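Re: beginner question about structure tokens

> Can someone show what the tokenized structure looks like for a real chain? I only ever see the sequence side.

Sure, here's an example I had lying around. Input first:
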Amino acid sequence: MRPLSRTGNYISTRIGRAIADYKLIEDKDKILVAVSGGKDSLTLLTLLNERKKWAPVKYELIAMHVETDFRCGGCVHTKVLKKFFKDLGVKYYFKKVKVLDKDKKTSCFWCSWNRRKALFLAADKFGCNKIAMGHHKDDIIETLLLNIFYHGEFAAMNPSQELFKGKLTIIRPLCYVEEENMRKFAKESGFPSQMCRCPNADTSKRRLMKNIVKRIEKDCEYVKTNVFRSVSRIKADYIKIKDEGR
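And the corresponding structure tokens:
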């Protein structure tokens, strides 16, 4: 693998800070890395693999790609990902999952639920204690806004989330990294040009949140950081509004 670019080093530093802040990776961890084939998950796998060479703790990586029957036209073919994994020298696993109903339709919830179930089962199969997801800072911000606007809840993705009474932990090492950095790193690294992309990406509510943030960013350049930090800066004395019901 070629030396890391300036962008790659920047992202790796941010990953390191997240690992330290939230204790995301510890000695002897066995981590299943969820790889969709998009820029975010390929960046995550590449840099976690690179960090193994000099990290003070020893950990093992297994890349996993969940292939559903709901696919976009530019989806990365299995052989392309296999070559990518082999070039990195990481173990890998592929799993096919059906998410379409008899009318060839699905929902974001059902698709996500089935892909996560496949990851959980694979983690158990291979004895992994952690699953690394490629969610970044923008994803966390958009999820927070989605929950506020559409569910009336102040909730976001945690950098570290224990499941099944601590048997398994989901980690998000890219939580301090903005999407634009991954886009730049993917181009610099020559990642596969046919990236996996959700067919509903342009019409989803998440896209709406992304556009809202982009619009506000023109007036407040720190809007992403402000929203991200708000999760840990809740002033309880100023939040005493009761649920009015529906």
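Each token stands for a local structural state, so reading them left to right follows the chain. The two ends are 57 Å apart (CA to CA).
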